[in-house]
Amino acid sequence: MTLRDLTSEAASEGELRERIVRELGSEFQSCFRCLRCTSGCTSMKLLELRPHFVMNMVKLGLVEELISSGIVWTCALCLKCEERCPQEVSPSELITLLRNLSFQREENVPEAYLKVVSSVLETGFIQEPMEVVSREFEEFTRESLGLPRLVGPREAFSENLIELMTREAG
Amino acid sequence: MEVAVYWGCMIPTVEYAYELSLRATFPRLGVKLIDLKGVSCCGSPIKSVNRLAADYLALRNIALAEETGTEHLLVPCNGCYLSLSEALHHWRTDEELQGEMEKFLDKEGLTLEGGIKIVHTINFLHDIIGLEALEKAVKKPLTGLRLVSHSGCHILRPSKILDVDDPERPRKLDDLIRALGAEVLEYPESLDCCGAGLLLSHPETAVSLSATKLRAIQGLGVDGLVDSCPACHMMFDARQETGARAIGYKLSLPVVYYTQLLGLTMGLDGRSLGLHLNQSPVEKLLERAQKTFP
Fold first, then answer.
1. DSSP of B148-209
2. B108 contacts in A (CB within 8 Å)?
3. The complex's ipTM?
4. How many H-runs (helices) and E-runs (strands) does chain A carry?
C-alpha cells in the first residue's frame, strides 16, 4: 500500500502532532518546503523517501499513515537533510521520533532492529565477538588475533535500559 | 600522551582490522591507549527505537571514560562518535535531561562531569598529532600511489556539534593520506553515503548504494579507497562482492582503513595491521606500494 492510498481517508491526530512539536521544538513548524532535504536525500532515488513530504504529513497530523506505510524505515540516517536545511529543521530527527512511535505501537519495526535491541539488553553490545575469515580462508577470533577480552556492562545496566525503553516517547 | 579509547560494537566484534591497526600505530605516535571496562553499545541503533535510551547508553560510556582522567576520549567509529558527541551536547544544553540521566547513571554507580573531549581517529590524527608529526613517522612513503577517501556521514554531520572543517568539502582525511606520500583525487561522489544505515531495514538497497559508489571510484582508475569507519568499511570491503551482484557490475577495488595505510608507511608488517582480514583485493594496492618503497 502506498502512502497516497493511506492518506486519502486519513484522520488527523492533532494531539500527537502537538506532542511532536513540543519534543522537536517550535522551529519544526518553520519548514517552507524548499526541498533541499529531498533533493539531496540518500534514500530518494531507490526508496522514494521525500523528507519534505514527511514533514508536511506530520504538520497535517497524519502520523499513523507514516507509521503504517513503513516509510520511516527507508531513511539511511545520513543527516544531509539536517545539515542542509536553511530553516534549521531536522527531518531526520523527526523520522527518528516517528520510528520511536512505531516501536511503541509495535507496528512495522523491522525484525533486525528488534534483534539488536535484545542483544544490547542481554550482552550490552549489538552482537557477540564473531569468528572472521581471512582472504586465505584462515579462521580468526579476538583471542587468536591477540586482542584483549571484551568486558560488558554490569547488571544495573539492563534494568535501566528496560525502564527507559518502556517509557512513552515524546 | 594517554588517551581513553571507546571501541563501540562493530570494531571489537567483527572489524578487527581497525582495532589491530590502531593499536599497532598509535603507540608509535606517542599515544598510549587506555581500554575501558563495562562499556556498552553507543546507542546509535537504539536511537531508532527510543531516543532517551540512546542518550543513556552514550552517556554511561562517557562516564566510564571519564574515570580514566584523560583529557580526550578517542572514538574510532563514526556512528559512535556522533552518538557520544550528540548525547553530550544534549547533556550540556538540557538541564531536565541532565537531572533525569543522573538518576540512571547513579544506579550504576556512575557520575558524569561532561568535560571530556570526544575525538574521532581522523580528527585526533589531524588536529592533535598533526600532519608534520605524521610525516616524520613515515619511513616508507606511498609515492606514486593514487587514492581516494571516504570520510563517512557521521564525522561530518551535523557539523554544528562536531569538529568539521567543511561538511560539504571535507579535507582532513585527504590531507592525512597526502602526509603518507600518496596522491589523493577529489571525486563527485565523495559525500555519498555508504548505505550502512539501511542494512537493518533495506539490506538490498544498502549494498546497492555502497556498490554504486564503488563503481564510480573504480572508474577513476585509482589504486584504492581509504576509509576510517567500521560500518562504511564493512559495506565497501566485506560486502563489496554482494554489492557487485546487486548492481550487476564487476567490482575489484582495494579498500583499507587509514590506520592500516599509516602502519604500512611506518614499516609495520601487514598481518599486524590486520591486512589479511580485508576481503577486498588489497594485494593490488600492496604490490603497487611495494614498488614505490625505496
1. EE---GGGTSSGGGS--S-TTS--HHHHHHHTTT-EE---TTTT---SGGGTTT-HHHHHHH
2. 153-154, 156-157, 160
3. 0.95
4. 10, 2
Q: Under an 8 A CB cutoff, do A153 and B193 touch? A: no
Chain A, 51 to 90: residues with Cβ < 8 Å from chain B are 73-80, 82-83, 90
pLDDT truncated to tens, each residue of chain A (170 aa)?
466 666 666 788 888 899 898 988 888 889 999 999 999 999 999 999 999 999 999 999 999 999 999 999 999 999 999 999 999 999 999 999 999 999 999 999 999 999 999 999 999 999 999 999 999 999 999 999 999 999 999 889 999 999 999 886 54
Within 8 A of B209 by CB-CB distance, chain A residues are: 42, 46, 76
The ranges of chain B annotated as CATH 3.40.50.11810 are 131-292
Specify the amino acid at residue B225.
L
Superfamily of domain A3-104 in CATH is Alpha-helical ferredoxin (1.10.1060.10)
Nearest to B202 among A47, A145, A151 (CB): A47
Whether the CB of B47 is below 8 Å from some CB of chain A: the reply is yes
Q: Which CATH class is domain B131-292?
A: alpha beta
Give the fold, CATH level 3, of B2-121. Glutathione S-transferase Yfyf (Class Pi); Chain A, domain 2 (1.20.1050)
Would you kindly state where each structural domain of chain A is located, as residue ranges? 3-104, 111-165
Specify the pTM: 0.96
